[in-house]
Amino acid sequence: MAASLLLANSLLEGRPGVRVLVPLALADGSAVLVDRGWLVDARAGTPLPPLPAKLDGRWMPLPQRFTLPGALRGTQGRVDDVDPVQLARRLGRHLRGGVVVLGETTAPLRAWPARPPFDPRRHYGYALQWLLLGLCLIAGSVLLWRRT
């Protein structure tokens, strides 16, 4: 549909590279960004094979990047951050507010690990903390009731 975006400063296993994002037109008249995968910096200019006819991936939020002054926010080519408003204008379509991260890619691309923006295991610690606080409050209430 349109030119690829190379999302710079994307580290994978400690190696610098780019994430290759491609806008894709949908049948309903909108567009979505497809994350084709990660490419090592040295190969960022190599031609890539076409997208497969059937895409299989996970829906993720658009990458939120911390950018410093002077960072390039754009809609095509090598950018530090994606500008979704300008990209939708350039495409002439409504741009969906996320990205489809492909589960499998073709060489020379490597699959980008699709992870949620938070670690769900972190909530077990919160649950345990509130459980212990509740038990302390119950024990304190029982002790206070016995004294009176």
From TrEMBL:
Where in or outside the cell it occurs: the entry states: Cell membrane
List keywords of the entry alphabetically. Answer: Cell membrane, Membrane, Transmembrane, Transmembrane helix
A single GO CC term for this protein reads:
plasma membrane
Where does the sequence pass through the membrane?
124-145
Pfam families referenced in this protein's UniProt entry, alphabetically? SURF1
Chief location bin: membrane
Annotated membrane topology: Multi-pass membrane protein
Name used for this protein in its record: SURF1-like protein
